[in-house]
């Protein structure tokens, strides 16, 4: 591979994402032999989603491409494929006028509004690297992401869900020397900010637009950096191409032979991997329609899914449980959950209320994964997360002999859906997957065979906490150690009632201090600006943390104690 990873340089900003031609991240490509093999097998392609959009614009210009709901007002925006393509061209021109082109990084932190999809496609059109950020991420983590990627433009909302995103970004800006433009979507836009509506959505006839017909972005060049906590609890960015994203979306489509009649909905963020592959990539591959809503309000969403004739639903168990009292069968053909364990009551309730068998799948920010198929038994979600897609491979490894439920194997994955590399958010350490273990990626999950060619997940690495989204344990621990009453701490997951995990803080208090309360610790993290869903929801005070001879905390012991 014609690529040399830079050495980690600690928490300071490295040159991994320095804008400009020839920088390391933009020269990163898969080995030629891998490109040739995956293209020959049909897992990757020479085309791109912009060409998909042009196809449907020309073949079905009046078909509905995108439906978006503003839950507060009930207002619904509908874009045809003609309007969708025009928005992408207009947005690409607006980005060009801001100086965005190849070698530049655009961060996007927006809720699930219709503008997200055209904006992401416009970034691909002008050759920029996109760093999507979920709107639940707060200032502390946002600053670290923007610093790591060297974003020259950040697009955000003004005030969303009670949080002033624009004000937070303004406060960070003096510490981000590469940030040239703060673009704000909303009614409160300051004089030194770019008004998204005025700059991006003026009639395209009155401003420069970048045509789609000649769009030829390199599908094997890094175009997305998606941040996750990673298998060790340390946040990292997964570097993806249009082809790794294509492979994930295409694997799900070929499973059920889906076509233009499909309408796809997920409540998960359009600025994270689930939303991107499900509501951006999949509709463009089929000529179908992406359906989104800006807020999760189960009663409203239940009626909305029926009104918009949604056929495909991807949803975490906790959201599905909340939705079922308000859901109707409508035109739903497929309901798929994400995660490790699916409660039996949920499988039964979906069949009873929606009239379809509940499916489940497994994947991660770094890679696509497994999925259930139409020929699986109706209750198979109780026993499996499905089989790996044909473009990828799974490997279960154990040093303890035979893999059993008592001794599950560690799950590794490689193939067309796996990212090219990861970069540490705080360390800058760049790991090129093709250079390690013959391309196998250690997921940190534990699994056993399911008896039908797939796997059953049984848990995850003790340092990795969460349900659909992982919590960066090491980062939270570091912040908690700054509390004056905390001498030692470990963040450990404990099961919730939806098949996911919640974070518990196991704390050794300072001897001379009043022991901290859970409220104290949460307030401490809030004062640091840490994202709220990272905060512990349970506190256990212990005299000492169990450790190995090498000094490592025995989180497996702590995790077992929390479930006793």
From TrEMBL:
One of its GO terms (molecular function) is acid-thiol ligase activity. Residues 476-552 form the AMP-binding enzyme C-terminal domain. Residues 56-418 form the AMP-dependent synthetase/ligase domain. Pfam families: AMP-binding (PF00501), AMP-binding_C (PF13193). InterPro entries: AMP-bd_C, AMP-bd_C_sf, AMP-binding_CS, AMP-dep_synth/lig_dom, ANL_N_sf, ATP-dep_AMP-bd_enzyme. It comes from the Bacteria. This is AMP-binding protein.
